[in-house]
Amino acid sequence: MLEEAKKLVQGESAPVYTTSTGCPIYNSLASARIGKGGPILLQDFHLIDLYQKFDRERIPERVVHAKGSGAFGTFEVTKDITKFTKLKMFNKVGKKTPMLARFSQVSGEQGSPDTFRDPRGFALKFYAEDGIFDMVGNNTPIFFIRDPAKFPVFIHSQKRDPQSALRDNTAYWDYLSQNPESTHQVMILFSDLGGTPYGYRFMNGFSSHTYKFVNDKNEFYYCKWHFLSNQGTKSMTNEEAAEMFGINPEFGRQDLFEAIDRGDYPSWTLYVQIMTPEDAEKFKYNPFDLTKVWPHKDVPMHEVGRMTLDKNPENFFTDIEEAAFSPSHMLPGVDVSPDPVLQVRTFSYPDTHRHRLGANFEQIPVNKPRCPVFNYSRDGPMNVTDNQGSMPNYPSSLQPLAKEYHEPNENHEKWVGEVTYHMDEITDVDFEQPRAFWERVLGKQPGQQDNFVKNVAGHLSKAVPVVRQRQYKVFGRVHPELGARIEKSTEEEAQKATKTGNKVVNQGNKHMFEPAN
Ligand code: NDP
Ligand code: HEM
After folding, report:
1. Less Cβ around it within 10 Å: N or C end of the chain?
2. Which intervals of the chain are annotated as region Disordered (predicted)?
3. ipTM score here?
4. Which of 187, 132, 140 is CA-nearest to residue 372?
């Protein structure tokens, strides 16, 4: 650094530049050398220290939801729901719990644009008095799959081709057209309402899954969580998203950061839908099927409280990148339901956290519970706590741990049956809710059905013909008019592409685009 510039930034109170071990350094921008212009010396610890740190800066990005942004805030209870749950953070109107939110895209890498058509993640971490509670949802009330064995392959079909490392529209629709339980999510994703939200402040968040509430009498209920944006919902059309991509691909991140920075704090109101176990037995849909909503007229919403985000991260890496959200981080009063996708998620997230962040990821400040932790687990790499000091590390009769407080959720569901590995059958029932979405949600708003058809056609036209044909049949099961309209527009788009720009070629298992000549 020039001596002049150095004088400007180094006032009397400026911190002294040091190595990682605190040793003050005279000139941080020069290596120790032999004479003027000679070779460097290995004994220059500062230089080695600098490189050791730099060479290890990157940790693995999240395997999904890699691109995201977040902020801190508070959840405040506004309505009494203690008859449904004994969750301590909900036990009093007016009670406030500090929290963190992270919003994300699903399939892109860390550098992918915020304008990409993709579901948005909606992950929340509550620092409750009795531990950490995470609600890891999306901006869509349902999802593509209902058997967890499909998740990794579904994600592969949306990511990059193993050979060309290009996004592959054929793989994308090949998977979806073979697995039509995805149709409801596809409908929401390709509408203007779900796939291209206007940043993160104007979208709703859903648990999507059914969870369980348990009250202090050990009675249980099934519930779905809805965080509705108090800013209202706002989306971009395909064209607006494409334009924004050219102008500012970081639009979502910037919009959230700047709104909080200027004191325009975004907030969401939490509602829950509640179902008794008896009603669950009689419900017209499987209440644990992640591809189905609970229609509002059948299962009304109950207000719970409001979350407000009012503090930007101080440091993006430590506050957002190192945050570890998991559906398995639960507290007494809430529990997993028999939804098999939710059950697998409770394994997958902490497993990936140990890979991404290390065995003691819970000790990283952003993940640390704000209550004491006592158990018999100890040690491990990068343990930075007091390691529970001299407390016994086994169930000692001489110095017992505090009593086990949490009453188990016993005598709830009873499951009997034989072990089976059957593929889920697709029936007409699977198309009822996509049809309601097409007719009642998109049909209600002028231009939305047209935009949906256009959005699908632009994307599907870049898949090979056999896959396109299969997907038309799937949309035809939603509504004959929808199937016909998608087919017409998609084939027109494909024709246009062949004449003027990119044509699709399918060489064996390679689905690539090459310019027409
Ligand atoms: P409802 O009419 O009671 O609910 C429709 C839902 O769609 C409401 O949450 C509504 O939000 C939302 N919606 C409508 N227009 C828009 C829009 N422009 N932007 C964002 N969201 C919008 O019907 P049902 O409960 O019977 O559901 C019908 C279909 O609606 C479902 O098949 C599903 O695809 C979709 N849907 C249902 C939800 C649910 O939990 N039941 C949640 C979200 C979507 P608002 O209340 O603000 O109008
Ligand atoms: C992130 C797995 C379904 C919402 C992740 C991560 C994994 C994963 C491994 C990366 C976590 C990390 O590195 O911290 C799975 C599996 C699923 C599944 C195996 C199904 C079998 C879902 C569903 C939703 C969802 C249905 C929403 C309802 C999210 C969100 C994140 C995420 C929001 C980002 C969390 C964050 O901000 O750090 N998922 N997922 N996932 N998933 Fe899932």
Report:
1. C
2. 489-517
3. 0.96
4. 132
Contact 365, 316 (CB under 8 A): no
CB 91 within 8 Å of CB 81? no
Catalytically annotated residue among 65, 184, 209, 353: 65
Q: Locate tokens 């706590």: which residue?
A: 385
Cβ neighbourhood burial of 146 (10 Å; 0-12, 13-18, 19+): buried
How far does the centroid of ligand 2 lie from the alpha carbon of residue 339, in Å? 15
Q: Is 309 within 8 Å of 270 (Cβ atoms)?
A: no
Mean pLDDT of 326-332: 97
CB 331 within 8 A of CB 87: yes
CB atoms within 10 A of CB 444: 9
| 67 within ligand 2 shell (Cβ under 6 A) | no
pLDDT by residue (tens digit) across 443-456? 999 999 999 999 99
pTM value > 0.90:
yes
Nearest 5°: phi and psi at 308? -130, 130
Confidence band of 258 (pLDDT split at 50, 70, 90): very high
Annotated catalytic residue 138: yes
Sign of CA dihedral 254, 257, 261, 263: positive
pLDDT per residue as tens digits for the range 108-163: 999 999 999 999 999 999 999 999 999 999 999 999 999 999 999 999 999 999 99
**Which mutation among 147, 348, 354, 424 tests ligand 2's pocket best, with the greatest number of atoms within 8 A of CB?**
348
